[in-house]
Structures are given as structure tokens and as C-alpha cells.
Write a structure and sequence with these properties.
- With 437 residues, the protein is α/β, with parallel strands linked by helices.
- It folds into 2 domains: 278 residues, Spore Coat Polysaccharide Biosynthesis Protein SpsA, Chain A (Alpha-Beta Complex); 128 residues, no CATH class.
- 53% of the residues lie in helices and 11% in strands.
- An 8-stranded mixed sheet has the order 3-2-1-4-6-5-7-8, sandwiched between helices.
- The longest helix is centred in the C-terminal third of the chain and has 23 residues.
- The protein starts with a helix and ends in a 12-residue tail after the last helix.
Length: 437
């Protein structure tokens, strides 16, 4: 897991109580700010603990690694500290393995293990809103409150994080019963016993190594009974994308990881009813947010094109009644491009149908997941039209209604899931024999 360069760095440092990991790929424009904020947070809140900031880079060609090594706090006296400061070390190292964020995390966790770290926090390299307080909020619950996993809780623009809002949060909450609002938020605090558990697993060469890493970490923490909390970090300002942009790879890897973990943790989620809140640290306040561009016409067009071209593969995944209801929605969208809706309960059943099909048809999984993209865009388009005039708190209420629709559909999921299981375990029937008299 560790390159020779990483091993030499571990041998030189010997020990670190806290590791801050920053995965990167061509983030020279923003990563300097992230490193300085992490430095300041470690110096201000954990001055008497040894610490290291590790940039795990995926082969950047824009000077990202140089930006990391040049980043420094211009004047540490501005932190107003009066306790002895231990130096914060910075490392920028390339990782080996499948290109992606998960491979970067694997190297960070492996170095944290070798350095004997008690806590590890990981943050995105494209953050513009990170402050020194983020370090405290991600690390302190681990070191001083006994939590194993700290998930982020932020204010985001109502059209930022649409994969989270429309699929991952409602489904994860309905499955495992914890209201972890940002299960793929990207910024987490992790206790030693949990990142050691991550390193034990053998699925690092799957989609987990790419975009699936965040939901993989969150799901393992929840499903295996680790102590989970959230910390309010304020605004998440980063390089947000138009939901209509090509997010097929991300959607495929994230949702594929959710569906794969459903099979592993079936014994956990099938017993869960409803959901409950999770402890939240930090002071909540309202913040200004960057607008997120939305191309409603492009999303609706992709949705309708998907219906015309992918109906055959959708029919493999969807129950007949849900396919018929979806057809009615598409007819509405064709007749009234600004006035149609994809209802919450139908959307919940569609996602659950795809989860069951993912279990039932291993050979077709890639095609199934790719065919989910236009459906996802249709759901986002419907959500955008419904919430255009709503303020953030009203939008959050709508997302809560969607989550309750997923929870209400849990019996439907169990019924479909069990029918798939029976079809997979039923003994093969002998071919009929024609008898002539």
C-alpha cells in the first residue's frame, strides 16, 4: 500500500497523533488554502499533539504538489496562541492503484496506521470555505468524545449535491435508520479502530477506489455499529457542477457501491424500521451560498431520450406498475415541459427496483447503473421545477418528505428483495417431457 517514498517519510516522522489527509488531482488553484486552513486548525486546537498533513495526489500536472509544499501560515501569531506549538509536517506523495479518491484514502489510512495516529481527518482539495474550525470539528469528537466516525453537516445550495439529496441520503437513511445528512460529503473524521477496519477489507480494487469511497466508509461505520456523529461545518463552497453535466461515472460508482453494500449488510438493514437523528456538534448558523447553474431543458431532454431508448432495459428492472406510471410521467413531460412531476413514492420504488435488479442480474449491472442516469436527471428536473421559488429551509423540508417516502416504501423493498432471493435459490426445474400415447 505504501510507496518507498511514503515509507521513508514514515520512518523519518516516526509518530503522529493526528493525520489530516487531502486527496487531490489538479487542484493547484484551491489546495493551498485547504492546507493553510488545516495547518492553522492543528496549531490552534491541537498544539501539543504531533500532526502531519498528507496530500495523496493522483498524478496532477498543474503544480498541485508544489502548491501543497509552498503553503504556509503567513503569520502564526495571528492565531493568538499561548501554548507550546509542535510543528505541523506536510507531505505530498503520489499514490499507487486504481486512479481515484479511494486509492488516495487508502494510502492516507495506511500512513496513519504506521504513524500510530489516534485520529485521521480527510478533506476535499477543492474547498473554498474550509476554516481552521473544521479541523477541530472533525477531530475533537474522535479524540475527546469517543466517536469513531464524524460526518459533515453543511449548508449547501439547494441544487448542489443532487445525487445525495435524491438517492443516497434517502436510501441510506431508510436502509440503516440513521439520519446522516451528508453520507458522501467528502470531509470526515475517523478514529483509529475504524480506519484500521477499512484497511482490513479486500474491496479496495472495486468502485470504492473511485467515487464510491465516501458512501463505503459511511455505510461500514453505520452498519457495523461504530459510534457515528455529525459536525456542522457551515457552508460547503467548492467546484460544484451543474446536475445536467455528465455525472454518469460518479452516479454509477456511488449508487453501485450502495447497492453492493446492501447485499453485504442485508442482515442489518432488513430489521430496521424508521430512522432516528444523529448527534450534531458545532454551532448552526445561516450562510451565503454560491449559486449552482441548472440546465432544466437538458435534464428533461435526457430523461425523455432515456425513456425512448432505454425502455427495454428499464423494463428488466422496474415492476410493471412502476414502468406504466413512469410512462405516464414521460407523456406529461412531453406535453408540458415545465409542468410535470415525478412523485416521491414512485421515485422511491424506482430506486428500490434498481437495487433489486442489481442483485438479480450481476452480468447486466453496468448497463443497469448507466441506464439510471436519465431517470436521475428526470427526478432532479422535477425537483428543480417544484422548488424554484423555495428558500433553503423549505427545500430541506421537501427532502425530508422524500426521505419519509423512502422509509414508507421499505416493506415494498423487502418484498421485492425476498422475491429476488427466492428466484436465485430455487432449484432448477427439469424440462417438461412430452408423453405420447
Amino acid at each position: 500500500m505504501l510507496t518507498e517514498e511514503a515509507r521513508r517519510a514514515v520512518a523519518q516522522l516516526k509518530k503522529a497523533d493526528i493525520v489530516i489527509g487531502i486527496p487531490s488531482y489538479n487542484n493547484a488553484r484551491t489546495i493551498g488554502h485547504v492546507v493553510r486552513a488545516a495547518q492553522a486548525g492543528l496549531a490552534k486546537y491541537f498544539p501539543q499533539l504531533s500532526s502531519v498533513i498528507i496530500n495523496s495526489d493522483g498524478g496532477s500536472r498543474d503544480g498541485t504538489q508544489e502548491a501543497v509544499l509552498k503553503a504556509s501560515i503567513e503569520d502564526p501569531r495571528l492565531l493568538l496562541l499561548n501554548t507550546p506549538l509542535l510543528p505541523v509536517h506536510k507531505l505530498s506523495l503520489p499514490y499507487h492503484g486504481i486512479p481515484g479518491k479511494g486509492s488516495a484514502f487508502r494510502m492516507i489510512f495506511a500512513m496513519a496506521r504506521e504513524l500510530g495516529a489516534s485520529a485521521c481527518a480527510v478533506v476535499d482539495a477543492d474547498l473554498r470555505s474550509i476554516t481552521p474550525e473544521w479541523v477541530d470539528l472533525l477531530v475533537r469528537p474522535v479524540l475527546h468524545a469517543g466517536y469513531d466516525f464524524v460526518a459533515p453537516y453543511y449548508h449547501r445550495h439547494k441544487y448542489d449535491g443532487t445525487i445525495t439529496n435524491s438517492i443516497v441520503y434517502p436510501l441510506t437513511r431508510a436502509l440503516y435508520g440513521l439520519r446522516v445528512r451528508q453520507p458522501i460529503g467528502g470531509d470526515f473524521g475517523i478514529a483509529r479502530r475504524l480506519f484500521l477496519r477499512y484497511l482490513e477489507r479486500n474491496d479496495w480494487e472495486t468502485d470504492v477506489a473511485r467515487y464510491g469511497i465516501d458512501i463505503w466508509m459511511t455505510t461500514i461505520a453505520i452498519a457495523e455499529g461504530y459510534q457515528v456523529c455529525q459536525s456542522f461545518l457551515g457552508a460547503k463552497l467548492h467546484d460544484a457542477k451543474d446536475p445536467a453535466a455528465d455525472l454518469t461515472a460518479m452516479l454509477q460508482q456511488v449508487v453501485g457501491s450502495v447497492f453492493t453494500l446492501m447485499r453485504e449488510y442485508e442482515h442489518v438493514w432488513r430489521k430496521v424500521e424508521g430512522s432516528r437523528p444523529v448527534d450534531l456538534f458545532g454551532f448552526r448558523f445561516d450562510v451565503g451560498l454560491d449559486p449552482v447553474p441548472v440546465n432544466l431543458e437538458r435534464m428533461t431532454k435526457a430523461f425523455l431520450t432515456g425513456y425512448r431508448e432505454l425502455r427495454e432495459i428499464w423494463s428488466l428492472a422496474l415492476e410493471k406498475s412502476n414502468l406504466e406510471a413512469l410512462a405516464a410521467v414521460c407523456r406529461q413531460a412531453e406535453q408540458n415541459p415545465r409542468g410535470w412531476r415525478l412523485p416521491d413514492d414512485l421515485w422511491a420504488r424506482i430506486v428500490m427496483d434498481f437495487a433489486c435488479a442489481h442483485r438479480r442480474m450481476p452480468v447486466e449491472r453496468t448497463h443497469l447503473l448507466r441506464s439510471l442516469t436519465p431517470l436521475y436527471l428526470g427526478r432532479v428536473a422535477s425537483f428543480v421545477m417544484e422548488t424554484e421559488t423555495m428558500i433553503s429551509s423549505e427545500v430541506e423540508d421537501r427532502i425530508e418528505q422524500l426521505c419519509l417516502a423512502f422509509e414508507a416504501a421499505k416493506p415494498y423493498l423487502l418484498e421485492r428483495w425476498d422475491s429476488v432471493g427466492k428466484s436465485q435459490t430455487a432449484p432448477a426445474q427439469p424440462a417438461p417431457v412430452e408423453v405420447r400415447t
